[in-house]
Amino acid sequence: MWRLGFVAGTPSPLVRRLFGEEIEVVFLPHTPNPVSGFVHYVPKRTLLYLDWSVEDALKVIISGGVLQPGVENAVASAAASEAG
Length: 84
Description:
The protein has 84 residues and is α+β, with helices and mostly antiparallel strands.
């Protein structure tokens, strides 16, 4: 299971020392209100980085996963191909 989150910043030197490995500070927003959520310290080796804009990621979060980046464009392209 994976969660969608935002890399929020660099951990402090103290936190990095305590973990003993590379970590990221990740904000995990709630659906449908992305201004609330949790901050986690996550081992960098466990993260997958998506090539999504912040706007696309927020669309996924607010819609509860109904909207997905690239899907709208794929549907519009298919419709245009059928019409043309």
